[in-house]
Amino acid sequence: MPERTDRSTPTDQPADTAGSPGPAGDDLARTAHQAELARTREFFGARAAGWDAKFPDDGPRYAAAVAELGLRPGQRVLDAGCGTGRALPALRAAVGPDGAVTGVDVTPEMLAEAAAHRAQATLLLADCAELPLPDAAFDAVFAAGLISHLPAPALALRELARVTRPGGLLALFHPVGRAALAARHGRQLTPDDLRAEPNLRPLLAAAGWELASYADEDDRYLALGRRTG
Question: Which of 44, 123, 136, 210 could form a disulfide with 107 if both were Cys (CB 3.0 to 4.6 A apart)?
């Protein structure tokens, strides 16, 4: 899912609700999550048609991030929060004609753009925290900008772990790093940013992932997690 540019994201706020364990914490997280989904649909629905034109030079960075997943022909990969499908051509090229590529997004207009311009995948209108997909269905998950839109990231990360086989990889990607993105939005980085390595590592671990590598540079953000269990 692409990054919004109009305001600070919910994950720049303290993560007490997002990470609260137990049924009560999960209920609060789901309530916040549903409210954010509605805002996400509204924001991206109005901008889907012109979204790719706003970021015309990001394609090679997406391709480079997909390459780091090390996908093999015949494998199955999920693009979680696929937006207009910028990663889909690279994902399809990596798994080949015998592989399977699935793109999931919550915004119908974004999926319509993906279907019109990048028909390399099966596309699903769905919430990444409640996927209509079986357990261990994928060898890898690619997620561009997704975590920044989730006030309850623990829920979605657990769901992504559920649909990924043990040993499979998760790529949390953005075509610019945290500092460059904050500067673009006219704000400062805060210590409680969930994308910071000290915060992300335990969040992933609690959701069934081990942080395998972490890069936060001017021209990319890429955290790779490996499915445990």
Answer: 44
**Residues 6 or more apart whose Cβ sits within 8 Å of residue 10:** 32, 36, 149, 150, 151
Looking up tokens 């561009």 gives 144
List CB contacts of 175: < 8 A, sequence separation 6 or more: 55, 58, 61, 62, 144, 219, 220
Phi, psi (degrees; rounded to nearest 5) at 166: -55, 135
- Alpha-carbon distance of 35 to 191, in angstroms, equals 25
- Label residues 124-153 b or e (16+ Cβ within 10 Å = b): eebbbbebebeebbbbbbbbbbbbbbbbbb
By CB atoms closer than 10 A (0-12, 13-18, 19+), residue 53 is exposed
Closest CA to 110 of 53, 50, 48, 174: 48
| Predicted confidence (pLDDT) per residue in 157-206, tens digit | 999 999 999 999 999 999 999 999 889 889 889 888 999 999 999 999 99
Q: How many CA atoms lie within 13 A of 155 on its CB side?
A: 26
Find the Cα–Cα–Cα–Cα dihedral 201, 154, 125, 71, rounded to 10°.
Answer: 30
β-pair type (138-144, 76-80): parallel
Question: Taking the model in full, what pTM does it have?
Answer: 0.84
